[in-house]
Amino acid sequence: MKKFLLLLHEDLTKLNALSPKEMQEIANAHFTWANKLAEAGHFISGDGLSEKGVLIAGKDCVIKDGPYLESKEIIGGYYLLQADDLQTAVELAKSCPTHLFGGTTEIRPIMEMEDYGL
Question: For residue 106, what pLDDT band results from cuts at 50, 70 and 90?
């Protein structure tokens, strides 16, 4: 099977406006979805990502605070899945709980050695 990285794009303003109960509902939805993917043999790993972090830019390695300086959108988490092909990954991602709260999913196939042409 091929590997696919699902990047969960979320609106930080919307997330910060959610109640603790709604945040718990999101977490529960993700746990349930991840368990379902694991039972089907698609789940490899996944986690939420902190909005805090740094951005390192250029050959001089200039370090900037946070990767989201001018955006209200964040990458709030990721899933690493395995599937037979991109279409299967797309079908799996359609049920990702991040869509329930206005988020979007970016799917990136993981390159394998033969994809590098080496």
Answer: very high
Distance from C-alpha of 33 to C-alpha of 97, rounded to nearest angstrom: 7
pTM recorded for the entire structure: 0.86
The CA distances from residue 46 to 38, 58, 76, 105, in Å, are 11, 29, 11, 13
The pLDDT-based confidence of 7 (bands split at 50, 70, 90) is very high
Q: Which two tokens stand for residue 59?
A: 């050959």
Residue 1 · residue 112 · CB < 8 Å: no
Rounded Cα distance between 97 and 79, Å, is 12
Distance from C-alpha of 18 to C-alpha of 83, rounded to nearest angstrom: 33
